[in-house]
Amino acid sequence: MQIANYNLQKNTIFADAEHPFLISIEHYQQDNEKIFSTIRLEELKNLMPENPNWMIGARACSALAQAICEKYGIENIIPSDANLLDGVIRTL
Questions:
Q1: Which residue pairs from 39-42 have beta carbons closer than 8 angstroms and sit at least 24 positions apart in sequence?
Q2: Where are the domains of the chain?
Q3: Among 67, 74, 22, 49, CA closest to 6
Q4: Each residue's pLDDT tens digit, 14-73
Q5: How far apart are CA 38 and CA 15, in angstroms?
């Protein structure tokens, strides 16, 4: 989200070095609209030269996340770089 210029703000909900930002659903919707409609996929891929095709999935995941947040009335999103492996390591 940082490299795609989403409107991230300081996480004011809790203090956690791994989750320093949050984004309101309103800003998330606006930024997704830009990502889906204005910015070409090739431009997004150029933001991540080490794995450009990752952006294909990232864009799709953003659409799913937005739909879920809208369905359940989520007001703020706390983005994370954590993945399944991080969760497995924390539980060991």
A1: 39/4
A2: 9-91
A3: 22
A4: 998 889 999 999 999 999 999 999 999 999 999 999 999 989 999 999 999 999 999 999
A5: 34
